# Entry
Amino acid sequence: MTKPLRGADPIVVNVALGSRAYDIVIGRGLLSSLGMRITALRPGAAALIVTDENVARHHLAAAHAGLRAANIRSSEIVIDPGEQAKSWRTLEALCENILAARVERGDLVIALGGGVVGDLAGFAAAVARRGLDYVQVPTTLLGQVDSSVGGKTAINSSHGKNLIGAFHQPILVVADTALLDTLPPREFRAGYAEVAKYGLLGDAAFFTWLEANWRELFAGGPAREHAIAVSCRAKAALVARDERETGDRALLNLGHTFGHAFEAACGFSERLLHGEAIALGMALAFEFSARRSLLPKAEADRAIAHLAAAGLPTHVRDIAGGTPGLDTLMNLIAQDKKVKRGKLTFILVRGIGAAFVAHDISAAEVRAFLEEQLSG
Ligand SMILES: NC(=O)c1ccc[n+]([C@@H]2O[C@H](COP(=O)([O-])OP(=O)(O)OC[C@H]3O[C@@H](n4cnc5c(N)ncnc54)[C@H](O)[C@@H]3O)[C@@H](O)[C@H]2O)c1
Ligand SMILES: [Zn+2]
# Structure
């Protein structure tokens, strides 16, 4: 049979939020059609691209070209890469630049980058001129399956990460999976932890599929688009049910209570990337759940084995530069989640694909568990 000249049609996932609903379009090579997709939504709008230096080097010219192809006027603001950009200082400069560039209500901000650019540009769009429309063009795997979807935008405070921000939904998400080809392998792996998370929290069949297909996903075959689409569908469903995280959306935090503690204890540094911390956190959540006899040990081992096979950390001894101390971790866990009368809230599992919110976990039990992990 003759092979098609073009790749398969893009996959579209809708985030059903009434008047704020939007599409996530997923496919290889979509950047060239960015302008056409924007014109369909906002004819006549001009676009300001916010990106970071690393992404600009690889993909900024193609993004401008994709806009020019639909006669969209575009300009750019390039920020320094890295988490430090999620600061008041960068936000202020960005907002001033948006105003100086005469971006009007009716024009668009385009966040071209990973979660850092998405969170920062999204927040600037939420507050500049009391709210501008924006489009997410995520360029990391984490961005394509997680941070670009759901409308959480933020910068960091000295009191903690993501504490200053707004809910501001994009009008469109364009996930061009080819952009991930230039991502450093370690960043790709870290993003994969969030993909595996969707299987582990609510979709056992997807997890089984990942066990068989993760290598093709890493290599850039069609499995990549499929996995990103399944992940976005899962997140979109949770966001549509619970936009402001008063209930079910919290399941997306599987692995995040333990994970954040380790991430913070390592100073949010290269020692442990976010996705790596989440892989470790999910492994601990499965281990902890098995210990409480919520699921068979063998099933927890299966979940953990897959994360390890993909090259992610699953044990505290996998952390570069030594393990953090028990008191440090417990303090961070207490800060992360509100402690009510000595009880902590955790996302636990009754099996692969069966996560639930547990409100009644005693701090003493978590402490004993972590002590064992740190010494074992
Ligand atoms: N809003 C949300 O719902 C949400 C969810 C999860 C995470 N986040 C946030 O996302 C951030 C982490 O995002 P991230 O992991 O994407 O990190 P990131 O944005 O820092 O990107 C990681 C690195 O990869 C580089 N990069 C990005 N795309 C590239 C490409 N295509 N080719 C080459 N290099 C590229 C970046 O310059 C950076 O150095 C955190 O600040 C986190 O708080 C937000
Ligand atoms: Zn995460």
